Amino acid sequence: MKLRQKIFLWGCLAAFAFSHLAPSSAAGISQASKPSSKLQVLTWSWSDTNQRGDRQFAEDDYWSVDDLPVIEFTISPTNPSRRVLLEKFNDSNQSWEIVAEDRTDARGGAVLFVSPDCREISDYGNPWCDYSETLRFRVLKALGQKQRISQTFEVTYESTDDDWSSDSDDDWDESDV
Predict the structure, then answer these.
(1) Global pTM?
(2) CB neighbours of 82 closer than 8 A, spacing ≥ 6?
(3) Residue closest to 116 by CA, chosen among 59, 175, 72, 38
(4) Domains of the chain as residue ranges with CATH
(5) CB-CB contact of 108 with 78 (8 Å)
(6) Has residue 97 got a pLDDT over 90?
């Protein structure tokens, strides 16, 4: 074999070996598709204040339940897309229950809703109840990223319509029906 052919073959072999040992950009694999070992950073805030932490909502301050601010959640690195759960603590069975969930978008953002809705437990159908709940975020693991759980925070709902809880029939007139 001539020297020129040997050099060509050794060059091809070296290029092939280098492409498998070099960083992913040299191998033709995008960085976004590889799992990241970067530190995960979770941030969130209320959509109306850009603040985070405990919050109190009074029925008189909102036209409807739909007008409540949402939680704007962001995680980095942005890839892979992640499932974000908003969980509340159930005092009766000492466990966490999912109340809202979303999947992160291309910028690592998710939107989660809170609600004072208690129609399922109320005889009167009022969507506002007086209660507090302890909440947290849980970000599920995906492609090399570990599951993350946030610190807890408290949300309090205050109903201002006392008529819903009144057992008195004093104002009831059957002729109004």
Answers:
(1) 0.66
(2) 75, 103, 104, 108, 139, 140, 142, 145
(3) 59
(4) 1-31 (no CATH), 35-162 (2.60.40.10)
(5) yes
(6) yes
